[in-house]
């Protein structure tokens, strides 16, 4: 039996694979009650599910106050630095340049988070330009909310930014979110190798995930849960029981995202090779 599913059936955490959750949150959310959204409770859930690491943004940052929310994200990482990495949330209406300047070099942050739907501003708008320039320059991955048919973050907008900034790594959060969105997300990722499909959401299934991996490859698909917004167990189960090879499942569950988070090390190696080259 597969050690991942064997552990689940035996009701114990798995330890055979490093699982990285590419899309998590922390803190209370204004629209519904989360019983305990603090870092200690999140670590307990991760331990129970066998998840090694989560990349997160605070709900405060994406909803109301990017500056205070980014500080809250940093505090969560400080609580358990081996278990969490932060997303620097950029609200286009709340000093994008200042937030990138303050947190962009902070090792507690491994990516940038955009939520155009919540911020009522299109992904392609000029207020996001500092984010794309930073991503293009550094290799820092950008996780953006996507939703099929949205006037703010539909998949054609993701493709437009991938064309404008071909060096940027764009994680398409929720992979379009709906069955029609999955179709569009797959097509964009096939054309644009810098677009990575992140699979959390309420509508996708293990079959959808397996199709994404078949059609774009496991290096362009990453596991995310949206927890504690969405139950981590459900999100993880879709991947554990999907029709994937062991190697593809390992890449989706953690290998690909682990590599994407190494952008600072990659940049240092590139600078070092330039200095030492004859």
UniProtKB/TrEMBL annotation:
Alphabetical UniProt keywords: Lyase
GO biological-process terms attached to the record: secondary metabolic process
SUPFAM superfamilies, alphabetized: Metallo-dependent hydrolases (SSF51556)
Record flagged with keyword Lyase: yes
Record bears the keyword Endoplasmic reticulum: no
CC per GO annotation: cytoplasm
InterPro entries per record: ACMSD (IPR032465), Amidohydro-rel (IPR006680), Metal_Hydrolase (IPR032466)
Domain Amidohydrolase-related: 20-256
Listed name of the protein: Amidohydrolase-related domain-containing protein
UniProt organism field: Streptosporangium canum
Lineage: Bacteria, Bacillati, Actinomycetota, Actinomycetes, Streptosporangiales
